[in-house]
Specification:
The complex is a heterodimer.
Chain A: H1 2-15, H2 19-46, H3 55-72, H4 78-88, H5 91-96, H6 101-131, H7 140-171, H8 175-189, H9 200-208, H10 216-223, H11 228-258
Chain B: H1 2-18, H2 22-50, H3 58-78, H4 85-91, H5 95-99, H6 104-110, H7 117-134, H8 141-172, H9 176-191, H10 199-208, H11 216-222, H12 239-260
Helix pairs in contact in B: 1-6, 2-3, 2-7, 3-7, 3-8, 8-12
The chains are: A mainly alpha, B mainly alpha.
């Protein structure tokens, strides 16, 4: 655990310099929460109670989704770090560390996520609560389940990002692939539009892919769309994917590590 | 004229150096198309399920979106690297543009061409064509001319805003977050008709950071929605005026920034 804290502390140190930057970031999160608030307000005005969900629940889903976007945006994460280290050739310093690479990436990314959660997501949630009708979870039990599924969602996203990062080792550059990747992940994760709105085939596809673990499951638990045994089933779904993705990532890293060529220096 | 010749020459060099990486070129363009397809699918699902969004039907939304992409494509081809100004300033590499005996701006702009813009051209043109036929539009020469004029104005509006923000980094050294705010505002006006976001938002994207002139106001005019927009409708004609005004402001800020510049020396 000390390892995880040290990366959080480091993030604080390196970001504390740019204060103006911080306010602008907070402002852009507010902008997204504000816009999603209006989109659902207008749509629900046209069709009240759509999909058996109240406007309050839908707004909470949307605003929470935008606030959590600050920590779960797939454009940030271990794949960016790996790609950067590969490009500059500095990846050898990571390999020399007396630390398992996969664990190192997890600790580093968890530290950064915790940092961004406390400095960006938390203030955004408070703003959302005060100004944009963001509601509290239905009860203590529901809140606890939400936190658990959020942590599991983090693990799923981390594992997917790690795999993408390994692609950077093979192809040397993933910058352009990441745009398509980000779009697809956010779409199937239900970051903006929840999965119950998806029609037929797309809905069925989204239901089995791992991406819904990232936003849809935690957010649905939070607003009470998934509760009781349904919530536990969803958490089980997340666990299954974690059990698939972590060994996959470690296995892939093992294979790539043995044939890694480092450029430059 | 000399400046233009030098610029074209520089762009030619950048293009050739970019084309060295064929694989990257292809994946980049495919990525852009996939990203836009995903965005449009999301909009499509929403509008389909709720029939319309504040009076905007599916294909009108596609038109709005594609119009923005079309304007953006030229910006992203030729001017996208205003984003990288802060790196040059932080790392002190901006000095190189001041040392050579050609215009600073020409050198900076000629440095790079972002081929990703070709993906935007494909997406924008396809979207506009599809929307045109689904909306049963029947344009004459006047509408087509206006389309071209307002697409180009949109490009200039986005370019001028990026230029101003990147000039500000001469004072603040950091401009990335300001670019993020602009990108967010851009993404919102691109994907949704701004009339759903309430008055103050509309005032901001009309008067303060006028990204609504990239696609929203010209689309009102071309889709015959100016009356629905009430007292805001006349702004549909104003894109070119806004573009010229903004470019003037950008030029002023840029000149001040250059005069202020002192190298970081690192």
């Amino acid at each position: 655990m000390r390892l995880f804290w040290s990366f959080t502390r480091q993030s604080f140190h390196s970001s504390a310099i740019y204060r103006f930057d911080f306010w602008l970031q907070l402002f852009s999160v507010f902008l997204m929460m504000y816009s999603v608030f209006w989109i659902w307000t207008i749509l629900y005005h046209q069709r009240p109670g759509a999909f058996g969900i109240s406007l309050e629940q839908m707004i909470t889903y949307g605003v929470l989704g935008m606030a959590l976007d600050t920590i779960f945006h797939p454009g940030r994460g271990p794949q960016m770090y790996i790609a950067q280290q590969i490009r500059s050739g500095a990846i050898d310093t990571d390999l020399m560390k007396p630390l398992d690479f996969h664990l190192h990436m997890l600790a580093r990314h968890f530290g950064e996520t915790l940092f961004r959660f406390s400095t960006l997501a938390l203030p955004s949630l408070i703003i959302g609560y005060l100004f944009l009708d963001l509601q509290l979870p239905a009860g203590w039990a529901q809140g606890l389940l939400f936190v658990i599924s959020l942590l599991l969602g983090f693990m799923v996203l981390f594992s997917l990002n790690f795999l993408l990062g390994l692609l950077a080792v093979v192809t040397l550059d993933i910058r352009s692939i990441t745009w398509a990747y980000n779009g697809i992940v956010r779409f199937f994760a239900g970051q903006m539009v929840p999965l119950w709105v998806f029609p037929g085939f797309i809905g069925a596809l989204a239901a089995v892919l791992p991406f819904k673990s990232i936003f849809y499951i935690p957010l649905s638990i939070y607003i009470g769309r998934l509760s009781g045994s349904e919530a536990w089933q969803a958490i089980g779904f997340q666990l299954v994917w974690i059990c698939v993705l972590i060994p996959l990532g470690r296995l892939a890293w093992g294979r790539i590590h043995s044939r890694l060529v480092v450029q430059g220096g | 004229m000399d400046t233009l010749r030098i610029y074209l020459k520089l762009i030619g060099i950048s293009m050739r150096s970019r084309l060295q990486y064929r694989a990257d070129f292809v994946t980049g363009i495919i990525s852009v198309i996939v990203l836009n397809a995903v965005n449009l699918t999301l909009i499509g699902i929403l509008v389909n399920r709720f029939v319309h969004l504040n009076g905007w039907g599916l294909w009108e939304m596609v038109f709005l979106y594609s119009f923005w992409v079309m304007s953006h494509s030229l910006y992203s081809l030729l001017f996208w690297h205003f984003n990288t100004m802060e790196d040059h300033i932080v790392q002190g590499t901006f000095d190189q543009f001041l040392l050579r005996p050609i215009g600073t701006l020409v050198q900076f702009l000629g440095r790079e061409i972002q081929y990703i813009g070709i993906g935007d051209v494909i997406v924008g043109a396809t979207g506009l064509t599809l929307a045109y036929s689904h909306l049963h539009l029947d344009w004459g020469i006047y509408e087509y001319t206006w389309l071209v004029v307002s697409v180009l104005s949109g490009t200039l509006v986005e370019t001028a805003i990026a230029w101003i923000i990147s000039s500000l980094s001469f004072w603040t050294t950091r401009s990335m977050s300001a670019f993020f705010v602009m990108m967010r505002l851009n993404a919102l006006t691109q994907q949704y008709p701004i009339d759903i976001f309430g008055t103050w938002f509309r005032v901001v994207v009309t008067g303060l950071i006028p990204v609504a002139f990239i696609n929203y106001y010209p689309s009102l005019l071309l889709l015959g929605k100016t009356e629905q927009a009430g007292s805001w409708g006349w702004l549909g004609m104003m894109s070119p005026v806004v573009a010229v005004l903004l470019l003037g402001i950008a030029l002023l800020v840029w000149n001040r920034a250059l005069r202020r510049y002192s190298s970081t020396g690192s």
